[in-house]
Write a structure and sequence with these properties.
285 residues, 9 helices
Length: 285
């Protein structure tokens, strides 16, 4: 093949690739000039496999998972829309990590705020040890504003998803406290921890001499959702307690366990924990 023939072949391939990757006409709303939001349609409803042998079974599978099933490809690459959807969902995950819980939201929830030894988001990511510790000033604030020696101490931390806190807290916290009242279980003063890690609950346990400490925290986001929350429970915690002594309820979000339902379940788990005086792998629920 001569150089000219090779050049013509490459130009032909490049033209075909441009046609293939060109945005579809429906991707732009001509009425107002706004680009269509490709994330508006749930990933479970996105299906691009051409001529599937069993479309119905494929769709049933997609309804059971938020994984990227049935997105297809063009040659060895993702299609343009698939790639854009991936980047959009990745941006949601980044926003969940690097955004902050709105102060007005915390005031509405009647939560005062303390901060770990972390000073900013970059340090939070690189120094997880500091997200487990409080300085003297913040420890003092916890002791002054919270009820001492509570049977159950509940608090909230942003963790790795501030989005999860704002998406779930309004439903889960009242569900937990209402459940505890129904069981006749007393609880302490809820509050919020900025830049908090799971281990921060052990210092809270020690500062307040709590029997059982409950932490609601934003989970590490993925491409499926940036709104997932976890609830960690530790009986008579202390700094350095083994992770195996924690009980966890995870995947709390609208497409997992809904917040209100999770709150009612957590209240029932708290009741069992207090009866058995134990959390973690030794607890038989």
């Amino acid at each position: 093949m001569t150089d000219n023939e090779l050049k013509v072949l490459i130009e032909k391939v490049m033209k075909e690739m441009k046609k293939e990757d060109a945005p579809k006409a429906e991707s732009r709303d001509d009425s107002n000039g706004e680009i269509r939001d490709i994330t508006a349609k749930p990933i479970q409803d996105v299906f691009y496999v051409p001529n599937p042998k069993n479309r119905d079974q494929y769709l049933k599978l997609k309804k059971k998972t938020a994984a990227r099933v049935g997105i297809w490809r063009t040659g060895p690459r993702n299609t343009t829309e698939t790639l854009l959807r991936f980047r959009a969902d990745h941006a949601v995950a980044q926003d969940a990590v690097f955004s902050y819980v709105d102060e007005d939201f915390l005031k509405e929830m009647d939560l005062f705020t303390v901060q770990t030894k972390v000073t900013d988001k970059d340090e939070y990511i690189t120094r997880p040890d500091l997200g487990r510790q409080f300085d003297e000033e913040n420890t003092k604030m916890i002791k002054e504003k919270c009820k001492a020696k509570p049977r159950v101490q509940i608090f909230v931390a942003d963790g790795l998803s501030s989005t999860a806190i704002e998406a779930n807290l309004k439903d889960i916290l009242p569900a937990i406290t209402s459940g505890l009242k129904g069981y006749g279980i007393d609880y302490g003063t809820p509050f919020f921890v900025k830049y908090g890690r799971v281990g921060s609950m052990d210092e809270v346990s020690q500062a307040l001499d709590a029997e059982l400490t409950i932490l609601l925290i934003g989970e590490r986001p993925g491409l499926a959702t940036g709104e997932s929350m976890s609830c960690y429970m530790t009986y008579k915690g202390y700094p350095g307690i083994p992770e195996a002594k924690r009980t966890v309820v995870s995947n709390i979000h609208k497409d997992g366990t809904p917040a209100a339902e999770a709150g009612a379940h957590i209240a029932s788990v708290i009741k069992v924990i207090l009866e058995k005086k134990m959390t973690g792998v030794g607890l038989n629920l």
